[in-house]
Write a sequence for this structure.
């Protein structure tokens, strides 16, 4: 995923992609930041049986990739995200959209509707969203 990060007033491209495990960690960090690795491990305990060392090592690697930063307060290391949830999702979606649908949104939406289905509520929400988007462009 190609996402941007502000650093010293400049924006630079991150070329690394979040793995499935990193996505789970980022979701916790976005919700609880700043947070320690132990906080992340506790939050993921129900879905993942990861040792503290595994979580900490993964988070340290995410720092090297540019997804997280560490703020040290005495002996405590607090992690913060370097990318927003929106940036990460946008990058992931653009990558998938380009790879699977040639970068075109309409075929992807058609595929999702035909193969995943929509509830009546979801269909109404989608119609409302399309209506609002159409009005903005007029």
């Amino acid at each position: 995923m190609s996402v941007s990060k502000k650093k010293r007033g400049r924006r630079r491209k991150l070329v690394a992609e979040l793995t499935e495990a990193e996505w789970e960690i980022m979701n916790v960090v976005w919700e609880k930041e700043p947070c320690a690795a132990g906080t992340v491990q506790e939050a993921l305990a129900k879905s993942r049986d990861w040792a503290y060392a595994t979580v900490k090592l993964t988070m340290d690697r995410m720092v090297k990739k540019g997804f997280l930063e560490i703020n040290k307060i005495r002996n405590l290391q607090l992690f913060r995200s370097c990318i927003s949830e929106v940036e990460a999702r946008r990058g992931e979606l653009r990558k998938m959209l380009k790879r699977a649908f040639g970068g075109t949104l309409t075929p992807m939406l058609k595929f999702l509707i035909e193969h995943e289905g929509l509830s009546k509520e979801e269909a109404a929400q989608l119609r409302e969203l399309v209506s609002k988007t159409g009005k903005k462009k007029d």
